[in-house]
Each structure stands twice: as structure tokens, then as C-alpha cells.
Amino acid sequence: MIGQFGVGFYSAFMVADRVRVVSRKVGAARAFSWESDGRGSFTVAEADQADRGTSITLFLKEDAAEFFDEWRLKAIVRRYSDHIALPIKLKTAEGEETINAASALWTRSKNEVTEEQTKAFYESLTYDNTDPFATLHIKAEGALEYSALLYLPGKRPPDLFTADRQSRVKLYVRRVFITDECKDLMPTWLRFVQGVVDSADLPLNVSREMLQNNPVVRKIRSGLVKKIISELEKKAKVEEGRSAYETFWEAFGPVLKEGLYEDFENRQALLGLARFRSSTESGWVSLAEYVGRLKPGQKAIYTASGESVETIAASPHLEGFRAKGVEVLYLTDPIDEFWLPMIGTFEEKPFQSITRGAADLGEITAEGDDKPAPAPETTPDLAALIERLKSVYGDTVKDVRISQRLTDSAVCLVADAGDVDLHLEKLLRAHQRLEQDAKRVLEINPTHPVITKLTATPKDAPLDDAAWLLLDQAHILEGSPVRDPRAFARRLESVLGR
């Protein structure tokens, strides 16, 4: 198959300064010898060969002596020709040995391959002796013909999040290995997939450059992605296998969520596969399950972002939602900050961060209540306190307002509706992608003892120390350092002294 392109002819002279071919045709009376040094001329002469067949002798260059090594030859054959249909034998002083498998599991019918064979092939590909989470045996026929044997690993590889990590899927053309670096064969959000793809529609002399933006490769990729998603959907729906799917999601969910950002075509399917931790459930939660548990009057899917589940669970922003039994999804992966605003809604319910904008909980009815609790009223004394706080802070904060989300804490910081969310700001600042910090809104809890005491403070009494301590407290609660530690310590000492 490969001889028609001249690739073998060219490669022979890369390692040899002379090549001799002796061949006798079936039924022919004589054999002939062809010999050349590859510099433009060749000779043909009669040769002695009793049987039909062809032998090719390479007289190796001095710098190609590595190809006299038995292990080097075996490695080359097993890498590039292990699965072609013909056996390749190596003859040494010790005897003759077949050094390729001469068989390709992916070309056989799924019913002809045992579980032990697919497991052994997975181990030979990955050096992983644990069972894969899923095995896909694919055979496409029709306008496009290809076979594939793909594996979804059961555990996360250590280099999954390294910058140069690519898909480990090997590309074959009619059983001949072409490359394991075809970036267009599998999207980056499926870079953990292992296996082989064998195409009958690509030429054997295809180069890496020809593979880029190749329409055949694009069609194969589309078909493979749909098969993988379909397999994951089956795994996710099986109730007795729920824990297995959740274990898989815990390992590979952060990578699959990259597809929510990158892959518009498969976005809705990936949303159905996504799982989240939440404020009300001990296990993983799907978006469909969340929507099915919406409280009366709840119009949004509430989310909270942070570095870990524990960090988010300790946030004061959750207090009002917990009080009404409203579920909040925890987002702990950096990619969450990018796919979420791009998608916006699920089943016509908008995603809403609990740390951005006003917490509109007034229309939600808590468990055991007949109607929503009324929003806290702004009394004249409370309005006066808010104005005094604004005058102390100046342009340090964007606004001061009464909170609907606080029940236990005195204060918290939130992002205004059109500003960068709190966790995203931290990520951008850590990567030096933020020129200056956005000004935040300080929300105060009108029922907290500290706020009620301050409300009753005479207008001529000093308020600055308490006001700045409240703002420092809000920064600490969101996991940020206080702006001026020395001033914080001085104010704290002053207040404690009084």
C-alpha cells in the first residue's frame, strides 16, 4: 500500500549509501537485481534466486549503525507496523522471531473481541493497570469509513493540566501508524481520552501539515466526540452506576467543563453531563436536579465561586439563602468563571452569582412559610447611618446598602451587577490581568447588634474606627487581606480600649 507513493524508496536512502533489490516474479524464468547509490543512476542485471519473491538489502551509512541493533529494529516495527495484517519477522543468529502483533483489535467486530483483550490493549497503550471507566469500540461505514478503539481512563493522569498536554489518541491509516500528535483529531477538552483511530479515507503519505484543518479529520473528530458524549450520557443515567460516574466527573469534570466554553455544538449535552457540589446536598448535583428543586418564587440558578467547597460554605453571602432553604451551586474550577457568563441560562433559568448584584430573595418563600418574608425597611436612623458610612469611606467603596443576604454577619462585600465577580477578580489579579481593583458594594445587616448599636450612635460621636473595622472585616470574610494592617491593628486597639 505504501509503495505507490515512493516513501519507502526515499527513506531507504536516508540510512543507506547503497540499496540492492533482488526479485523474481511468479512464473518467471529469471530473477533480476536492481542496485543504486541514490545519486541519480542505477543498474539492472540478472541475478541468482531460486524462488519467487523480493529481498531488499540496505548497506547502511556509518551514522546509521543504530539500525543494526535488534532492540532498535523491534521498537520501530512495533511503533509503526505492529497492527498491519502481515507478520514481520526478525532473523538473528539465535533464530527467527515475529516481532509485530499482525492483528488490530479495532478492525474486528465488537463481538469478536473479549474484555481481556481490550483491557490488555489499554495497558499496552497507557501502562495503566487499573480498569478504564469506559471502552468505546467504534466502526463507521458509509460516506466516511474509520474504526476506533477509545478508552476513558478511570483515574486522572498527573499531567492532565500541563500546558503541553495533548490527546493521546494514535492515528492509523489502514493499520499503518501515522502519528500520535494529531491535534485536530480530538478537542483539548477530551485530552484525557486514549486509544487508536484507523481511517480508510486518508492517504498513507499524509503529513502532519496535511492533517491540519483536514475535512476528513474534522468529520472523524465530530463523530468521535458525539460517541463519547453518548457513552457518558448512558453512564450518567444508570442509577446503580451513579457513584462511578461521579467519581469520573470528580477526576475529569474540570476538563470537560472547558468544552462548555469552547464547543458550541455540544454545549447543551455537556450541560446535562455537568455535576456540582451544592449548599443543600451532600453529593453531586446535576442542573436538571437543581431546577427540579426550585423554591416557590425562585427565578434563578444561584451560584457561588471560590477556591474550595469549604471556603465557599463559610462565606457570609450564603446566610440569607440558607435561611430560606435555597440551594446554591458551588463553583470551584477556574474555568467556571468563563463558561458561565457565555451560557447564561439553563432551561430558561438564568445563572446568578450570590456575590454579585442585589440578592433578590424577597419573592422566595421559605419552607414552612405561607408567603415570602418582607424585605427589611430603611428607617430614618438606618438611612442616616448609611450616609455617615458613605462619607467615611468616600470613593473606597462603590456604595453602602442594606443586605437581603445576611442573617448572622454584620457586613459583606459584593460586586455590583455590571462589575467583575469577586472570585474572578482574584484570578485575574493572580495572573496580573487586572490593572486596578474594582470598587465594591458594602452591604450591612440591619438586624445585627453591631449595626443596631451604630444606628443608635449620636451623630456627633466618632464613627471612623468602627466604620473602617467593618470594611476590614468584610475583606477578611471574603478571603482578602486588609488594605492597611497597621491601621487595622490601631483601630482594633482603640475600639477594644473603649
Strand line-up of the largest beta sheet = 7-8-11-9-10
**What is the highest CATH level, the class of the domain at 105-240?**
Alpha Beta
How much strand content do the residues show? 15-25%
**Major beta sheet, specifics?**
5 strands, mixed
- Unreliably modeled segments: none
Average pLDDT over all residues: 89
Q: Any idea what the shape is?
A: elongated
Total helical segments: 16
Rg calc = 34 Å
Q: What is the CATH topology descriptor of the domain at 105-240?
A: Ribosomal Protein S5, domain 2
Through-space gap between termini? 92 Å
Helix content: 25-40%
* Estimated structural class: alpha+beta
Number of strands: 19
Write a short abstract of this structure:
With 498 residues, the chain is an alpha+beta fold. It contains 16 helices and 19 strands.
Keywords:
Four Helix Bundle (Hemerythrin (Met), subunit A), Heat Shock Protein 90, Ribosomal Protein S5, domain 2, 498 residues, 34% helix, alpha+beta, 5-stranded mixed beta sheet, elongated, 19% strand
Secondary structure topology:
Layout: H1 7-15, E1 16-24, E2 31-36, E3 42-47, E4 53-60, H2 70-80, E5 89-92, E6 95-98, H3 115-126, E7 134-140, E8 146-152, E9 168-173, E10 176-179, E11 194-199, H4 208-211, H5 215-237, H6 242-262, H7 267-273, E12 277-278, H8 287-292, E13 301-305, H9 309-313, H10 319-323, E14 329-331, H11 336-343, E15 345-346, E16 349-353, H12 380-393, E17 399-402, E18 411-414, H13 422-430, E19 441-444, H14 449-455, H15 464-477, H16 485-497
Parallel strand pairs: 9-11, 13-14, 13-16, 17-19
Antiparallel strand pairs: 1-2, 1-4, 2-3, 5-6, 7-8, 8-11, 9-10, 12-14, 15-16, 18-19
Helix pairs in contact: 5-6, 5-7, 6-7, 6-11, 15-16
